[in-house]
Write a structure and sequence with these properties.
The protein has one domain. Helix content is 78%, strand content 0%. It has one helix and no strands. 0% of the residues are buried.
């Protein structure tokens, strides 16, 4: 293995030792990046599940709101009927 052109100017540069260190550093960085990418992919999957659940819950909330609104309308209509005097024909 030959030293890079600028390596001769670096004091205490040993291509054999420093090359191993660089390989270890690069391997470590690769493992960290791979791990980070895996965590990011898991978060994206989790985000997709949460968005789907949010859409489902929002639809359920709208349905419940619709039922409540109709129940309140029915209650008001029944109260108005009870308050009106009966007409006898």
């Amino acid at each position: 293995m030959t030293a890079p052109a600028g390596a001769a100017q670096i004091p205490d540069f040993d291509p054999a030792e420093d090359g191993v260190y660089e390989r270890e550093t690069i391997a470590s960085m690769r493992d960290q990046l791979r791990s980070g990418l895996s965590r990011l992919e898991l978060r994206e999957e989790e985000l997709a599940r949460l968005r789907e659940r949010d859409a489902h819950l929002e639809a359920e909330l709208k349905t419940t709101d619709w039922h409540l609104t109709n129940a309140l309308k029915d209650k008001v209509a029944l109260q108005e009927r009870l308050e009106r005097p009966l007409r006898r024909g």
